[in-house]
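Standup, Tuesday
Yesterday: got the pipeline producing structure tokens again.
Today: sanity-check two examples.
Blockers: none.

Example 1:
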Amino acid sequence: MQIRRAAVRAVPAAVAAALLLTGCAAGDPAAAAARQTVTGPPVADLPPSTPVPTPTAPIALRVAVRAYHEPLDHAHRNYCGAGATEVLLSAWMSALPDVETVARGIVLDPNTGATGADTAAGINDFLRPVVSAKLGHDRYRGERLTSLDPVLTRLRADLGSGDDMRRFGHTTPVMVQTMTKTMPGWRGWQATHMITIAAASLATGNPDVDTVTYAETPSPIAGYNGPDFQTMTVSALWVAMQAFIVDDPADPINVIS
């Protein structure tokens, strides 16, 4: 039986007393005015995927996605799996299902979040009408990757997929599981998390220089205070992913690609 991961960690007593909430992190509700609980347009720094590559113009490692903001309330504090799924689906679908439909599709428990396996299965269910006729099978699979090299292999293969570009007109975003403590915008809070990576710059082969760009969907009540998209080094991403592997061994899936 799949053991559901815990999406919220215990808060210090002083913080808990101040918030009276058990959100993913200690947020600043006043910052919520700058964020809306609607699906936004494609962001300017993630333009549409490049044309099919030629020998002199290799495909860029990026795919156009839309920002998504999880509802600004305590009941949705553990909806990062649904939020990341909305972002991922936006690369494939012009009309997105609402967040509650997505939450049901990935078997999300509002108190504990969603597992990697359930999220992967839900993503494939949503995308089957889009991909089945052209691909003949589900597009996404869940994996447990415990070293950096296979993670980079998946990012290159999916974000730079010429086959997907030819079939669908775009490449493929990648979802990963992390812990939030070392990630920008979380102010040191530690919680399990899901993000969708929509772009990568991996040309140097140096993880301290190469970067990934990903969407952040939680509200300030859930603990995130930052822009819709963040960019961090590959080494920083791997620190956050390694923390998930250590902190949540019960969830066997940490990459959905």
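Example 2:
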Amino acid sequence: MKHNFKKFICLLFLLFLINCKKHNPHNFTLITSGYGGTYPGLIADPAKGRAYDIVAARWGIDFYWRGCVISNDTQWEDIKNNWEAEDNIEDKFGDDWKKKFNKEVLIEYQKEKHYEKK
């Protein structure tokens, strides 16, 4: 019984080492997929696309649209990437970064509408 437990612990440790990936503190790329390529919790209004892109660039956030079809081969890697990127974004902008981001997008959109009228 003890011998099997030691094997189990060794196996878990090996799996941990194999799956362990060094944290990249410079990862600010969020991977999106599906129709529209929107990211959960962020403004999805296509009319605000330019304002969305301006704010993302200002914040140093990149969005990579994977496409409409999600492959099982890339799905888990995308999830892990987004966890890492969200952690980095939260460290830089706070836990409420999505709320702040959306607010800034709305402000930027209003500026654009104001300039279009002139």
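Quick observation on example 2: The chain has four helices and two strands. The mean pLDDT is 84.
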